[in-house]
Amino acid sequence: MTPPEGVRETFFVSDSTGITAETLGSALLANFPGVTFRRHTIPFVDTPEGARRVVADIQRSSREGADPIVFTTVKSATIVRELSLSGAVVIDLLGGHLRELEAALGSTASEQLGQYHGVGDIERYFARMRAVEYAIEHDDGQSMRALDIADVIIVAPSRCGKTPTTMYLALQYGLLVANYPLTDDDFPSDGLPSTVARFAAKCFGLTTTPLRLSQVRHERRPSSTYSSLAQCTLELRRAEDLYRRNRVPFLNSSTKSVEEMSAVIMQSMRLRA
Q1: Of 2, 36, 48, 170, which is most buried by a Cβ count within 10 Å?
Q2: Per mean pLDDT, which range of 97-111, 127-141, 200-214 is the poorest?
Q3: Distance set, CA 262 to CA 72, 113, 149, 204, 253 (Å)
């Protein structure tokens, strides 16, 4: 199918899951907000035959528009050479850096496929898994158990980005993160809700714009009081007043990615992975 005019076909090719290629490639693409990219993640390309099949796909898309862009984290030089025959713009996200490390360490990088994507530090891996379990248990105020061991408690009105930020901090950094939804019942008092008030020093607030919140809520409950602009405006004003009264740091999530919000939270709360 011919891509829409102005759309650039982009491939993330990996000898493992493709997560690293997609993450690093997307970080680079984010610097070009005026360009629309149609993304394809192709994992487990670990043989020359598999690479040739990918090349055929890339060449088909090449005939339909501008040269595709290929980001790859494949370690095998043979497979990378196959990909370079596609005629696409091939960006090897590992190659140059591996050569630099080889020179610095006086050692040759392992040729084992997927080594870059492995678990690595097993203790760190299990810490992240424990953090994910903690985040699931404490999502949206479902559990108040063991809040004393939380690294941070995210508080915000519904649909301000609590859950994705919580999960990102857990999975990426192994932090113990709970989140608590602010509702109408929480606002008669000037203080924080009783369930989290004891842990005020761990709290971080999120807000957004009323219009953005209304749009997001409308997708869940269209034409409801919950999604009305008036309700969203009221809840956000109350939440921000609550944060200020209780000296809870907060940020506006409307124009920030999960990665950016997580970085701000970690810096503000002086958290370390």
Answers
A1: 170
A2: 97-111
A3: 26, 31, 19, 11, 10
Name residue, tokens 């020093």: 201
CA distances (Å), origin 209, targets 216, 229, 254: 11, 10, 6
Per-residue pLDDT band at 111 (split at 50, 70, 90): low
Helices 229-245 and 210-220 cross at an angle (nearest 10°) of: 120
Record the pTM.
Answer: 0.65
Q: Token digits for 168? A: 């990102």
Mind listing the domains of the chain with CATH numbers? 7-117 (3.40.50), 122-268 (3.40.50)
Q: Exposed, middle or buried by CB within 10 Å (0-12, 13-18, 19+), for 246?
A: middle
pLDDT tens for each residue of 194-217: 999 999 999 999 999 999 999 999
Asked if 57 contacts 27 with a C-beta cutoff of 8 angstroms, the reply is no
Three-state secondary structure call for residue 94: coil
CA atoms within 13 A on the CB side of 94: 25
Structure token pair of residue 206? 């999120």
Transcribe 188-240 into DSSP letters.
Answer: SSSS--HHHHTTGGGEEEEE--HHHHHHHHHHHSTTSTTT-HHHHHHHHHHHH
Any idea of the CA torsion for 42, 44, 46, 51, to the nearest 10 degrees?
A: -20
Give the model confidence (pLDDT) of 10-62 as tens digits: 999 998 888 888 888 888 888 888 889 999 999 999 999 999 999 999 998 87
Residue 273 to residue 177: CA distance in whole angstroms? 12
For residue 99, pLDDT over 80 is answered with no
